[in-house]
Design goal:
Layout (H helix, E strand, L loop, with lengths): L6 H6 L2 H12 L9 H7 L4 H10 L5 H8 L6 H23 L2 H13 L4 E5 L4 H14 L3 E5 L2 H9 L6 E6 L5 H13 L2 E6 L12 E4 L17 H19 L2
Parallel strand pairs: 1-2, 1-3, 3-4, 4-5
């Protein structure tokens, strides 16, 4: 029995939640190959109900439940895949805890205020993939966007910025020299620089008018190259776009 329920916990479970817990206990050996959606389907419930039932029993979500199945002595392959899947959960959880809702709103308001002028977005390396999607979505919302990852163009454009013009710099580590130079140039011209990065020690922050700092997962799979996950940056950009859409719909 993987989930033990006693006294008060049992009383707090609804009939459906009890059935879910019973199903989980009766199918312990099958759970490693099942998702929360599979359990919901088999118990005629929903993923959110399954998640709620698990949490009521003192287990912090479906991932923790699967981990209990893969403790030492269990199949090492299952332990490994569970740890790999847990990386994304950690990144998502950490970035949501670290960014301030007040700062998100402030950044959104700056982007909205700049809708009638050109907005520049600078990035380098793998972060360009995040920025390309972010820029495209802003363009679909009728923003005038110029985005580039070319180091020479970044530096030259940053020197031509006007006072109060908006520039967004996106960087994982916040240590890329061309981006730091661009941020400094923007600061000296009086432009408004929004920095989105995953390091609170980045030199970019000293030149930022507004900033959002996410979370950098230290462990990387491909150790010979700088290919650290950009999931936190994707999450931040999605939050900004979704909130911009929400604001547009409220007009």
């Amino acid at each position: 029995m993987i989930i033990k329920i006693e006294g008060d916990v049992l009383e707090n479970l609804s009939k459906t939640e009890r059935q879910i817990v019973q199903f989980i206990n009766e199918h312990e050996h099958d759970l490693a190959n099942m998702s929360i959606v599979d359990i919901a389907f088999e118990t005629f419930s929903s993923p959110s109900t399954v998640s709620r039932a698990i949490r009521k029993c003192g287990i912090n979500g479906f991932n923790e439940l699967r981990y209990k199945l893969t403790m030492p002595g269990k199949n090492r392959e299952l332990i490994s895949i569970n740890e790999i899947m847990n990386k994304s959960l950690i990144e998502a959880t950490e970035v949501l805890q670290r960014i301030s809702l007040t700062n998100v709103l402030a950044v959104v308001n700056e982007i909205r205020a700049a809708k009638d002028q050109k907005i520049y977005i600078f990035s380098r390396g793998l972060t360009e993939q995040v920025v390309k999607e972010f820029s495209l979505k802003l363009e679909l919302l009728n923003y005038d966007i110029t985005q580039t990852g070319d180091p020479n163009i970044i530096v030259n454009l940053s020197k031509r910025l006007r006072k109060n013009q908006l520039v967004i710099i996106v960087s994982l580590n916040g240590q890329t020299q061309e981006l730091i130079e661009a941020a400094k140039n923007a600061y000296l011209t009086g432009a408004k620089t929004i920095v989105i990065c995953c390091s609170d020690k980045s030199p970019l922050l000293q030149y930022a008018y507004r900033y959002l700092v996410g979370y950098r997962y230290e462990k990387i799979s491909i150790k010979d190259f700088e290919v650290t996950s950009r999931v936190p940056l994707f999450i931040i950009s999605r939050i900004l776009v979704d909130y911009l859409v929400e604001q547009e719909n409220m007009k």
